[in-house]
Amino acid sequence: MSETLTTPAAPSITVQELAERACREDIDLIDVRTPAEFEEVHAVAARNVPLHTLDPDAVMNDRCPDSDRPLYVICKAGGRSAQAQQKFLEAGYSCVVNVEGGTDAWCAAGLPVQRGRRTMSLERQVRITAGFLVLVSGLLAIFVHPYWAALAAATGAGLMHAGITDSCLMGMIMARMPWNQAGPAANGSCCSAD
User: Fold this and answer.
1) Residues known to be catalytic
2) Based on the domain organization, do 30 and 68 belong to the same domain?
3) Which of 119, 148, 166 is a domain's end point?
4) CB 73: neighbour CB atoms within 10 A?
5) pLDDT > 70 in the chain, percent
6) How does residue 160 score in pLDDT terms, banded at 50, 70 and 90?
7) pLDDT, tens digit, for every residue of 135-156?
8) Is 70 helix (H, G, I), strand (E, B) or coil?
9) Is the domain of 107 the same as that of 18?
């Protein structure tokens, strides 16, 4: 009989538990969304370290002497923060905790946030770009040459890969675009149903 090694589940925390902890002690919370997404709305305690620029060693070195305290990672809904957590785990840091539900759950719970100018979400930008590529390649395949259909097929394959792996190349490219970088400073407010 062979033993099966199981990997322990990566630690996570709910937004309510994190907010309670933040009331009792200082927490270290990084938001791994793009600067523009972060500027639009973020948990008051969060600081921005975009996923596409995340260097686990640099983040942990900046934390000294508090490197034994948990580092909490948050994004929009939990996907990118799980990827960030995995980067930390692969770099040998085990005290990294993913915030379940991300900023969406934080806002839904009515917890304090900073708000700035509204931006278009990265997911929406990817859908628009993918749709545009499929539309244009379809028209070019009809009116110019059938080989243009390959662009639509490649776009579809990329979307399928993103869905399976939860890692989107087009999203990573879009995150680096100038319009996804920070603009004017955010002002403070609380989440509300507006």
Assistant:
1) 75
2) yes
3) 119
4) 30
5) 87
6) very high
7) 999 999 999 999 999 999 999 9
8) coil
9) yes
